[in-house]
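Quick one: co-fold with adenosine-5'-monophosphate-propyl ester.
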Amino acid sequence: MDMSADSGQQPKYYTPDPSYRVHSWMGDYSWTYNEFVKDPDKFWDHIAQKLHWFSPYDKVSEWNYPYAKWFVNGKTNITYNCLDRHVLGDRRNKVALIWKGEYPEEERVFTYRQLYREVQRFANGLKKLGVVKGDRVCIYMPVIPEQVIAMLACTRIGAIHSVVFGGYGAAALNQRIVGAGAKIVITADMAIRRGKAIPLKHIIEEAVINAPTVEKIIILRREQRTPVELHSEMEIDFYEAMADVSSDCPAEVMDAEDPLFILYTSGTTGAPKGIVHTCGGYMVGVYYTTKYIFDIKEHDVYWCTADPGWITGHSYVVYGPLSVGATVLIAENTPDYPDPGTWWKIVEEYGVNILYTAPTAIRMFMKLGEEWPNKYNLSSLRVLGSVGEPLNPEAFEWFYHVIGKDKCPIVDTWWQTETGMHMVTTVLGEPMRPGFVGKSVPGIVADVVDKDGNSVEPGKSGFLVIKKPWPSMMRTIWNNDERYRKYWETIPGCYQVGDLAIRGEDGYIMVIGRSDDLIIVSGHNIGTAEVESALVSHKAVAEAAVIGKPDPLKGNTIKAFVTLRVGHTPSEKLKNELIYHVRITLGPIAMPSEIEFVDSLPKTRSGKIVRRVLKAKEMGMDPGDISTLDE
Ligand code: PRX
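Sure, here it is.
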């Protein structure tokens, strides 16, 4: 693919006000990047030294391809840096967390001291239930303060949390509980969405069937008038779990390389992958990028709209912002409910200074019209952020002009569950180029290469890769190290990201999309294999193949091609039933928008379904080489 902007027209940039260039604790982009290049270990050491270590590391990094260790033999605890450090310092009474519920006036506020106390009490509650360092705990909750408290309580005592997004269905949840071998599941009786209670308990009940490692389920009962009944053999109330315990739970001393958490992400084939992040490197990576990329100031209100159940929430709702001592806003809401002004109302009411969101939300607001944001005073906004999928130039322009009023820089951040932290972006103060993410974050060496690992010429597409290890890189995939190694073994010497990209003459990188079978729908990673196996688990389906179709709003939508078993005939009713079936098993985010019944699917002679042929046909494009296909 050629890049028109570099082959003829002058690229378009927006240059932010020079005041944005000044980073109080590091220099501007070139200076900082050069510091990194001069001595990478010294660079990371400088950052790590800003955090608390119970005992110092002997060495900054150790690279034994494809395995990395960072801050070797250092001892720390991320919650010490997110809580104790601030409470013992001068942020004791600073607001740490603001939760905004869906109903007007529904809000909860925690100072650092209050959050510290709640986390320690819940951590002691977990200990009382027998949870010890290294145990896995699954958290399946809506966006409420207890979700954050549960995460921090786990890492406080060295338990490895595996947070599962609250919108997943029972089968997806079961797979993740079993995969991680969770001893405890922490959940809530319901989520609130569009003014309605969405019950969660029956999903959990179904998900723990055939999950033999689960010993207890901790349930936060939000409905107090008629609280759901608990079955005492297995189930325990969230607040009862933390009753009668001390509010003093010193942070467990963790080795820098001990696992911190597992987070499942969709894979191109088979089961989702349990990405493993570790205590030291992850902490340094998210601390650094939160501070440097967002430049959060002491009195800022920072709002990242992601659910803490995704990596964006782990890194940039919970661990990054709390490690820098920020005031973090979270909201349990839907952007267009009760009306499309709801987010802008929150920005006005709380004086949000930094707003970090996803292109899919921006495109939805674009469609709904400027009149909604224009009703509110958005002058508090200073920095805007985007993540999850390409921020197309039209969405960039809209975000920049309508929300940022031509003054707020946009940091479009490219990264992944696997990378733990921001990898490619346009650092504040640097000229922004719509459609392009930007350059490697200082500390990272990203490149666009061919399949042999050679850099491609500017303007030509290639594979986006990372050429050097970094502290917050995943260390392995839970119970599947072989799959981990593949990331580093496919392209010689590089970590393969799985995205296609183009680098312009100016060094700016444009991410085009996935090079594999993952589909990014509204910024969420959906594995074709997962949707296909959900479809095939329906009695009428013989085989299924799923593709992503470009969509102006969601980035992509899912289309499924299905062959039926003998005795079943295509009908509209069956289509709806299949869509519903995926919704129940995997959750609404993985629902196909379209189903087409076909007589057969294109396959290789060895029987592998060739989705690219279906996609080409769907898009009216040339399917390429089909000589290896079966008749
Ligand atoms: O394809 C890229 C896309 O999201 C993928 C990673 O998904 P996940 O692990 O779920 O993490 C999402 C949040 C970090 C990437 O491989 N992606 C993420 N950010 C961007 C992006 N694509 C383009 N531009 C981005 N800023």
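If it helps, Residues 265, 311-312, 387-390, 412-417, 437, 497-499, 511, 514, 520, 525 surround adenosine-5'-monophosphate-propyl ester (CB under 6 Å).
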